[in-house]
Design brief:
411 residues; alpha/beta; TIM Barrel; 3 domains; nine-stranded mixed sheet; 20 helices
Length: 411
Amino acid sequence: MEYLIFVGRQPILDKEESIFGYELLYRNSEQNSFPNIDPEQATIQLLVNTFLSIGVDQISGKSKSFINFTGELLIKDIFSSLEPDSVVIEILEDVEITPVLISRIREIKQDGFQLALDDFIVQDQYALHTELFELIDYVKVDFLAVDDNGRRGIERFIKKYPHIRMLAEKIETEEQFQIAKNSGYDLFQGYFFAKPEIIKGVEIPSNLNLHMQIISKLNDSDPNIDEIANLILHDISLTYKLLRLINTMNFNAPKSVGSVKQAIVLIGLRELKKWMRILMLLDISDHSSSGRVKALVSYSMSRAKMCALVAIRTGYPNGDEHFFVGLFSLLDAIMKRTWDDILPMFPFSEEVAETLQGKNTDMTPYLELAIATERFDMENINKISKRFGLSKEEIIAFSNKANHWARQLER
């Protein structure tokens, strides 16, 4: 069974019933309801699922994403990785408004984010902190929870702040929609238009972001080994795997390697860059309960080594680029995403990227030979090996060596 992740989304429409944005909702299954979970944890997991795993482009496209935040989360520094133009911060109705919170909201606003008050009703605390409303962009009013008199009070209150757009939520009938439009609401949300939709994705470990930071540092013109070692140490699993691989693979290393920095010095930055990509795929396999994913990762490892061995044999001194083509050749199947979505996440060379997309490059025959070998496709094996001037015995030897190497990694 796949380890799936879920995000709920409900469209927010304008007066012409065109999509303006989506409210994003935490879900932990295909059951379309909010599970019993702490709201702060729900938002954190929603952010991970949306921005690190599935991808906000798959969920909201170019529309705005409305996301609920508790008072505790508003204070925390978790906004730096979010895109201000695409995220609207919804402040929950039970958040206590204080001068400290208003100061923090002002900082968030200065960073370019828009803000909404969720399930708004006129409270005494709002009269004490009217400066809040200079910072707010949207007010959401629940048409099921607030009666006609309550809504009229809210509408009178908000008219003092003409820059604020009113959003009518829980709209369930044509009559409510017309009342909201006639009462000055700009945006609309509710079952009358659409129930929340569940978007599913295959979980990719959240430390993928850390892996990419490390690979980015390794690509610097003058990489800082201390910085790289410190980043690796941020992930216990990654640290353990790197040291275990150094200690078990043939790197002419001492019997035991005791530190990440020592490991980096021993194997060198070029080798580390290669192994970081390998460890990333192994992490994906370890975080999945799916036999399908584990099998795809195993095939990826064998393909990588096969491509590199043939590349070295045919005149490429280290075969690194060919190795990467084999290693990532199944990433679209593993992540269940298109190459157009995946490629911006990785600093591949143009030729590697084109090969992975199925375009015909100088690297394509190497990948095709690796695939033909794993499928025992003798016709293609003979055709490509003849082109490369390889004997049948060499192909068998390379295949055995690649499979043995991949099995070592799975221990």
